[in-house]
Amino acid sequence: MMDKIPLLLEVLPYIQNFRDKTFVIKLGGNVISDEERLLSLSKDISILYNLGIKIVLVHGGAKQVDEHLNKISHEPEKIDGRRITDKKAIDVAKMIYGGKLNSEITASLMSVGVSSIGLKGCDGGTVMAEKRDIVNICDDENGVAKEVDFGYVGDITEINPDLLTMLLDNGYLPVISCLATDDDGTILNVNADTIAKEIAVAIDSEKMILLTDVPGVLEDKDNPSSIISYMTIEEAEEVYRSSKISGGMIPKLQNCINAVKEGVNQVHIIEGIKEHTLLAELFTNQGIGTMIEGK
Ligand code: ADP
Ligand code: MG
Fold first, then answer.
1. Could you say which ligand is closest to the alpha carbon of residue 214?
2. Is the beta carbon of 218 within 6 A of some atom in ligand 1?
3. Interval 36-79: pLDDT, tens
4. What are the pLDDT digits (tens) for 182-201?
5. Is any atom of ligand 1 closer than 6 Å to the C-beta of 224?
6. Cβ atoms 37, 110 nearer than 8 A
7. What is the pLDDT of residues 216-271, one digit of tens each?
8. pLDDT class for 83, splitting at 50, 70, 90?
């Protein structure tokens, strides 16, 4: 028993520092795909919640949307690896993001005593977006430029944080899915990292924490032990411009850089699919994932 006391003293400065601060935590699709993993994460989050940290959760779940589209044998068109969100895809996105995943996360948190509230980005006008413009993309095969309409995909135009602030001030933990709406009420899918970043900036969050399926930003994406533990913005920008990152890490790192530039003090990218990585990152000096800081 007594051997646990030094540990308490070790985390005391963190506890003091985090009290009354706001963290935005984003859960990637792989992090929430398994009930046990989600419960373990909910317990870690409940520790932060009980320490008096105000938390907003944002979640994606593209993997689950893809799985469901597969089940109904609908194969949306992909261009350069990016899926076109057609009518069927956005309908499934509404069900999976706004229904299944959102309620599973909320229920898991409730089961460990966290007063969570499930929301879609569009609730209370929290996340307003506009349909992404048609873009010109160079065809890999013949080098000819072509117009691509990504469908029901949105770019954020405005964040209205009033609903979130009201909930946070009353002890609730909002869980927000990555569905936004435009001025005409069309529901659009927005990248969840981008929602997390915009909300973190709008509510003056101390930290933005992105939980994903890799240990952090890697020097070599195929070598999990090549993690970059710490980056200044300048270093992060250098990595962003390099060929070290690809796929989902491109918008992720871009959002991290922008978050810090726009006032979020620290950004963390952590492997959310491993147990207790969130606590290891936040309550130890050496951390476990990638941290980006302003300075
Ligand atoms: P999430 O659902 O958490 O947003 P994404 O798939 O969008 O996850 O982004 C994370 C992915 O980015 C990783 O699974 C990995 O395949 C890819 N990636 C590309 N380059 C890197 C890199 N240098 N370091 C880490 N991950 C990278
Ligand atoms: Mg992603």
1. 1
2. yes
3. 999 999 999 999 999 999 999 999 999 999 999 999 999 878 87
4. 999 999 999 999 999 999 99
5. no
6. no
7. 999 999 999 999 999 999 999 999 999 999 989 999 999 999 999 999 999 999 99
8. confident
CA atoms of 225 and 87, how far apart (whole Å):
41
Ligand 1 touching residue 213 (CB < 6 A): yes
At residue 285, the pLDDT reads 85
Q: Residue 17 pLDDT more than 90? A: yes
Phi-psi region of 151 (alpha: psi -120 to 50; beta: other; left: phi over 0): left
> What's the CA gap between 170 and 186, in Å, rounded?
30
Residue 145: per-residue pLDDT: 84
Bridge partners, 147 (sequence order): 136
| DSSP secondary structure of 86-146 | -HHHHHHHIIIIIIIIHHHHHHHHHHTT--EEEEETTGGG-EEEEEPPPEEEE-TTT--EE
CB of 244 shorter than 6 A to ligand 1: yes
CB count within 10 Å of CB 150 equals: 19
Residues of 200-235 as b/e, b for ≥16 C-beta within 10 angstroms?
Answer: bbbbebbbbbbbbebbbbbeeeeeeeebbeebebee
Residues 286 and 270: their CA atoms lie apart, in Å, by 13
Mutational test site, ligand 1, from 221, 223, 228, max ligand atoms within 8 Å of CB: 221
| Ligand 1 pocket residue status of 252, Cβ below 6 Å | yes
Ligand 1 site, residue 215, Cβ cutoff 6 A: no
Number of CB atoms found within 10 A of residue 109's CB: 26
Q: Is the CB of 249 under 6 A from ligand 1?
A: yes
Do 189 and 90 meet the contact criterion of CB atoms below 8 Å apart? Answer: yes
Q: How far is the CA of 246 from the centre of ligand 1 (A)?
A: 7
**CA of 248 relative to ligand 2 center, distance in Å:** 4
